[in-house]
Amino acid sequence: MLRITELRLPLNHAEDALRPAIVQRLGVLDADLRAFTVFKRSYDARKKSAIVLTYTVDCELTGEAVVLQRFAGDSHIKPTPNTDYHFVAQAPASFYAGSNPQPRPLVIGFGPCGIFAALILAQMGLRPIVLERGKDVRQRTKDTWGLWRQGELDPESNVQFGEGGAGTFSDGKLWSQISDPRFLTRKVLTEFVKAGAPEEILYVNKPHIGTFRLVSMVIKMRAEIEALGGEIRFEQKVSDVLIEDGHIRGVTLASGEQIASNQVVLALGHSARDTFTMLHQRGVYMEAKPFSIGYRIEHPQSIIDAARFGASAGHPILGAADYKLVHHAKNGRSVYSFCMCPGGTVVAATSEPNRVVTNGMSQYSRNERNANAGIVVGINPQDYRQDGKADGPVNPLDGMAFQRIWESRAYELGEGGYKAPGALVGDFIKRQRSKVFGNVEPSYKPGVTLTDLQQKGNGSLPDYALEAIREALPAFERQIKGFSMADAVLTGVETRTSSPLRITRGRDYQSLNVKGLYPAGEGAGYAGGIMSAGVDGIEVAEALGSAMLQPS
Ligand code: FAD
Q: Name one Pfam family in it (predicted).
C-alpha cells in the first residue's frame, strides 16, 4: 500500500472529489487505483476565506512499485507504514499453574494509564489485579453530579477519583504531541473504537468523544480485561506499600487487607496527594516538577467560531472551533491556553473538601453556548518551596502544598459551598471588582461568586501570575478577535494542570530505588492527557510483562 500525505482540497469539495485528486497527484489511470482509505483528515484555517482540508490517504494501486520509484524523492508519497500492534511477549496458558505460582501484577488506579496497562497485561495473559480507590463509573457519575448540583463532595468519588480516572468527565480530546515511532496511539484509538468510540477518531486529526461515550467505553474496556482473566476492584484504596530490600513485595489497602505482588504499576493520577505522601514517607524516590496555575476563561462559542472560521463558521466538518494560544510575558512567565473545550462547560474538579478547582468538559456534540479553556501560567519548583530558602533542592511534596494554598483561597473567595470565585475580563484587566455578569453566563456549577480576584494581600493567585495573565489577555485579542471582550468570565482556580511531582523511573520503567514498582501516567509525571497516559500505560505494561515473562 502507498500513502499520500498533504493532499489538499477546498473545504466545500464534492464528496467524490478525493478519488480524482489522488489519481491526478499520482499521475496514474483511474483504473489503476484499486481502492483507497482516508487515514487522517485535518483542516488548515490559517486563511479564513479559503479553508482547506488536508488528507492523508492510503492507496492500493496496480503497479505500486513503479509509482513509488517515480516519487522516490517526494516526502509526501511513501509506502504505508505498518501500524499494527505487536505484543512484546505472551504468557503460556500454564503460567500461573503449579503449586507455587508467582503473584499476579497489580495496577493501582483505573484511569487511562491504568486501563491500558491492565488491558495489555491481560492481553499478554498476565491476569492483572486492578485496585481503584473510587467507585464504578455509574455510581461515580451520580457522586460527581452531587458536587455540581448540590455542592456535596465525596472525597473518594469525584472528577478525579473513580473508574475511568480524571478524563472521564472531560471533552475526551484524543490527540497528543508525543513522539510515537511505534504507533502506540493507534493501538489506543483502536481499542477505543472496539469499546464503542466512533470510527472517525481513527482518521480525524483532532478527535474527541465527549463525556457520555467515555462512560460506556470504560465499562466495555473493564469487561474485556475481566474476560481475559483480569480483576478490577473498586473502593480499594492502596494506603501503604510493602518494600523489602529495595523490592516491592505488595500493598496494603485502607481496609487493612494485604495483597502480595512483585510487580506494581502506580497509575495514580495527579491528585492522589495522600498516596504521594505515603510513598514519600516510604522512601520511594520522587522529585518536584513544574506545572501551571491560572483560571478558566469562558466566551460565547460563536465569537471563537467567527474568529477562527469567518464565513465558514458552523460548517459540519469544522465543528465548534478551538484555539491554542501562548504569550511570553515581560516578567519572564509564559501564559498559555490549556485543555480548551469548545461548546462545553466549566466543571468543579476538586477531590478535597473546602477547596475549589476548575477544569472543563463537553459532550460529543460540543453544542453548549460557551467555549472554555484554562489560561495558565507556567511555574517551577522554586516558586512553591515552603522552606523560605531561595535555592537548593525543593521538597517533592511542596508543589502539592502550594496547590492546596490556592485551592483553599479560591474556596474562601467563592464564599463556600464549592462556588468558584470569578471576574469579568474587562474588570480583571482594569484591576477592579466585578459586580454583575454581562452577556456571558458562566457554566460552572454550583455557581460563581463575582469578586476581585486580585485583592491586595488576598489575591487568588501569586502576583507574578496575575500580572502575566493581565498582560496576556489583550495580547490574545490580537490572535482571536473578541478574546479580551469585557464580559468574558474568568473562574478559578486551575491548579491541577499536571502532577506537581515526578516519581522518577529508570530506562527499565521501574522506580529508581524500588525494583518492581512501575510509576506511570500523569501522576508519576510521565503523561499529560488521555492519549499520552494510555500510551504510557502500554509501555509500562510491556516493560513489566517482559520482566515477568523473560526474566534476565
Ligand atoms: P487518572 O486519570 O487521574 O487516574 C488515576 C486513578 O488512580 C484515579 O481513578 C484514582 O481514583 C486512582 N487512584 C489514585 N490513588 C489511588 C490509590 N491510593 N489507590 C487506588 N486507586 C488510586 N485529557 C485529554 O487528553 N483530553 C481531554 O479532553 C481532557 N479533559 C479533561 C477534563 C477534566 C475535567 C479533567 C480533570 C482532566 C482532563 N484531561 C483531559 C486530563 C486527563 O484526564 C488526564 O491526563 C488523564 O486522565 C491521566 O490519566 P492517568 O491514568 O495517568 O490518571
A: FAD-depend_C
**What is the atom index within ligand 1 of the atom nearest the CA of 109?**
7
Domains of the chain: 2-79 (3.30.70.2700), 106-285+506-549 (3.50.50.60), 288-494 (no CATH)
Number of other residues whose CB lies within 10 A of the CB of residue 150 = 12
List, for residues 241-280, the tens digit of each pLDDT value.
999 999 999 999 999 999 999 999 999 999 999 999 999 9
Residue of 522, 536, 538 to mutate, ligand 1, most atoms within 8 A of C-beta? 522
Q: Which of 107, 119, 133, 503 to mutate to test the pocket of ligand 1 (most atoms within 8 A of CB)?
A: 133
Q: Does pTM surpass 0.90?
A: yes
- C-beta neighbour count of 427 within 10 angstroms: 21
Pairing of strands 517-519, 264-266: parallel
What is the longest distance spanned by two Cα atoms in the chain? 74
Quickly tell me which residue has 501522576 as its cell.
Answer: 523
Rounded to a whole number of angstroms, the distance between the first and last alpha carbons of the chain is: 39
What Rg, from alpha-carbon coordinates, does the chain have? 25
Instruction: For residue range 74-100, list pLDDT tens digits in order.
Output: 999 999 999 999 999 999 999 999 888
> Angle, to 10 degrees, between the axis of helix 184-194 and the axis of helix 112-123?
90
Closest CA to 69 of 56, 59, 79: 79
Joined together, the cell numbers standing for residue 219 give 465499562
